[in-house]
Amino acid sequence: MLEVSGLDAWYGEAQALRDVSIRAAAGEVVTLMGRNGAGKTTALRCVMGLHSSMRGSDLGALGPVQRARAGLGYVPDDRGIYATLTVEEHLILPPRAADSAWDVERVYAAFPALRARRGQYASKLSGGERQMLAIARVLLMGSRLLLLDEPTEGLAPILVQQIAAILRDAKAEGRTVLLVEQNLRFATAVADRHYLLSQGTIVATLGNDEVRARESEVLQHLGI
Fold it and tell me: Which residues in 131-163 are b (16+ Cβ under 10 Å) and which e?
């Protein structure tokens, strides 16, 4: 589903990623973990084609629009929500890129809070509701590869549980998820494997059992 090989990326003359290789199979959830500034968001932006100063990727020359049409769905850390659109307007806006696309009623069933606020402007939503809306949009497009940047950051535990359930459903449907996540409990609950990034380089690839066995070491590496 996703294979990135030897990816390098820069901001000006500063190198942000060095020889990064990532693989995620269909129906697999994979995380990128590391402290702030390690290069996690840059890696997602490169996969989505939003970072122009890069080389070495096996992703080809497709731009962001073509990648979205090919089945990539990106939820950035700022959610990318339009303040002057209502919840329902957000949900009818995304084009359907595949037969696997969710419909609006399925979104409302998965996220009852969005149904209750369907006529409200996005500027009036809580942070958790905005996150639900951002994830709903990529599911409405039928994206087969979901790129999620810190989806649980700042959310109440009950909302974290809802997002975990959605990711498990996506996995069961054969979708692939590349997830930037600092919440170790959440990451090991939903993911299959974990890439540990440090200063733009992957320093370890860990399974869930390895993360749990080395939890204190991993947390120290994450700066938590």
Answer: bbbbbbbbbbbbbbbbbbbbbbeebeeebbebb
Residue 39's contacts (CB-CB under 8 Å, 6 or more residues apart) are 9, 16, 17, 20, 197, 199, 200
Q: How far apart, in whole angstroms, are the C-alpha atoms of residue 7 and residue 192?
A: 22
Which 3 state secondary structure label does DSSP give 197?
A: strand
| Cα end-to-end distance, the chain, whole Å | 32
Q: Are 143 and 72 in contact (CB under 8 A)?
A: yes
CB proximity list for 106: less than 8 A, separation 6 or greater: none
Q: Averaged over 179-206, what is the pLDDT?
A: 94
pLDDT one-digit tens code per residue, 68-90: 888 899 999 988 899 999 999 99
Encoded tokens for 158? 């009950």
Q: Which of 162, 203, 167, 175 is nearest to 33 (CA)?
A: 203
